[in-house]
Each structure stands twice: as structure tokens, then as C-alpha cells.
Amino acid sequence: MNKVPAGVSTPRAQEATGKRIIVADVGGTYARLGWTQAADAEQVHDYRRYACADHPDLASILRDYAADGVCEGAVVAIAGVLEGDRLINSNLPWAVSVEQTRQAAGLEWVRLINDFEAVANAMPLLTRDTLSPLTRATEATATSPALVLGPGTGLGAALWMEGHPPRVLATEVGQAALAAGNDLEMDIVRRLLRERRHLNNEHVLSGTGLMNLYRCLCELRGGSPLHADAGALVAAAQSGDALALETLQVFCGWLGSLVGDLAIIFGAKVVYLAGGVTAHIPSFLHDGHFLQRYLNKGVMSERLEQVPVWRVEHGQLGLLGAAAWYRQHVDVAATLL
């Protein structure tokens, strides 16, 4: 009997190469699903989006999607870390067990991969028209290692390294401690630490973190929060609301600082910025605050000037990456017992 890889649940082998495979990108707010086949694994068909809060568990979403056709298994890109059969995640509305999900969804096998592992696997498939430069440098000396990160409901990051097959190092950078880089950020950190013992990156650098940052700046500036969600906050900033505008500027600068830190730590040759939040704030990311803090790394500034940062404009990175993962590992899926 072959050993089943971590994150896979399957009772027996099937002819994996000829059947439809569900590919899914599951975040804290939405689950995005499509299907693919081994012979055509760079193509994702029949895209659908589900609101996670409208469903009692992951299995019900997979079961609903599979109801219209025969699907053998599923590759699910999902934020968190597997601990045996269970997924550790702070942003999902329900717990996830791999085996229970497989059984309840009626699938032969289920594979969970880190959401940014999937996003990283999608990077080699992107076309130039989906990339917008955030740095003056647009040519890299090498394509690997490539740092891929982005704020959404949480904050994810992974490192892509070329090879046959390519390797991806998934991380939990969103759970690492948030580092302040100037006096204002120090004041923000002090206030947020009143609420919790561990202040992580995604408590500020995520969609929900953006609102935490806004409320904190309102307190510091003696104002009252006027906007209830990130969409309203961004719209207000675009209309000239001073506190909303400052929030977006601080957010982008702080994000740029973290990106620079991670590029140094991992020795990245190129950086890709994805995530649901970045798709809604392109003008703020390009206004200079991000770049200034990205390059503000002392003796490493000259090094980072040679590392381009691209904002990715693609709505289905998780699905594309899950399909790419399946194509790379289809032989594993075909031989599982």
C-alpha cells in the first residue's frame, strides 16, 4: 500500500488522468471552484463562486459543485496548516477534517494545499498583460526564487523555486509578529497590543486588518470611525476623506516594508503581489508609499532596487495554481490507494 501524502484522503485508486478533478480556492469569505483534467490541467472550466458563510462546511460546497457531473477528486487551495487530518486556520467559518470532507463530499480523494502554495504555482503561467510594475526595475537577473504574497481575508506568502518539478515553500507569514518601522507605526502597535498579547502581520495587513488600522488611526487623530467596511473605506479615500486616505497610505507603506523584509530574508529575485485587497487599491499601491518603504532597507536598498515587484491582475490565481499543482502531481493522485 502506498503511503497517502499529508492532506490527501482517498480509499482507493482510480484512473486519475481521464476524469474531472475539482480545483478550489477557499478563503475566509469566498470559495471559488472549477474543474480540470490531467490532459488539460492548465485550463479551468465552469467557474463558480460560493459564499463560505452560506454553507455549513467545505464538504457541502464540494458536493454542490460535483452534483452536475462526475468528479473523481479535489485539489483544494486553502489558507492554514495541516495538523494530521485537521486544518489549523483562524479565518474560516468552519473546521475542516480531510477525511470527513472527502466522505461527505462523495469524492474518491481530497488534497489540501496551502492557498499561497497554489498561487505560487500559478506564477509561471501568467502572461505579461496580467502584471503591473510597482518598482522601477522591471527585469530580474533570475526568475527564482520568486516571492509571492498578498493580503486578503488574511495574509499569505510562499516562495517559488524553479526545478523539475518546481518547489514551493509555503509560509504562515500572516501569523508572524508585526514590526513597526516608524513612530506612527509604533503608536499603532502600542494601541493594538492593548487588545491582544500577540500582534501578527494580518491584524493590520489584510482586509480585516485595514479596518483595524482605520479605527486605530481615528483614535490617534481624535476622529470617529465613519466607514463600516473596507469597500466603503477605499471609496472614501478615493473621494478625499483625510483619515481614510491616511489609512490607505499607511497600509501600503507598511505592506511595502514587510515585502522588502521578506525579499531580503528569502533572497528573492522577483516579487509578485496578489491577494484580494490589492485588486481594490491599485492607485494607492502605485502612489509611492509602497515603493518608498520597500526600498528603505539600509545597506540592502541597492540590492532591492534590482528586485522587481509586480502587482498581479488575475481573478483566478488559486484555481490556476491548484490545477498546476495537480498537473505536476497527477502521477501521485493516480497511484493512491
How would you describe this protein?
By secondary structure, the chain is α/β, with parallel strands linked by helices. It has two domains: 127 residues, ATPase, nucleotide binding domain (Nucleotidyltransferase, domain 5); 186 residues, Hexokinase, domain 1. It has eleven helices and 14 strands. The strands form three sheets. A six-stranded mixed sheet has the order 1-8-5-2-3-4, with helices on both faces. The protein has a six-stranded mixed sheet with strand order 9-14-13-10-11-12, with helices on both faces. Helix 1 runs parallel beside helix 2 and helix 6 packs across helix 7. The termini are close together.
Top keywords for this entry?
337 residues, alpha/beta, Nucleotidyltransferase, domain 5, Hexokinase, domain 1, 2 domains, six-stranded mixed sheet, globular
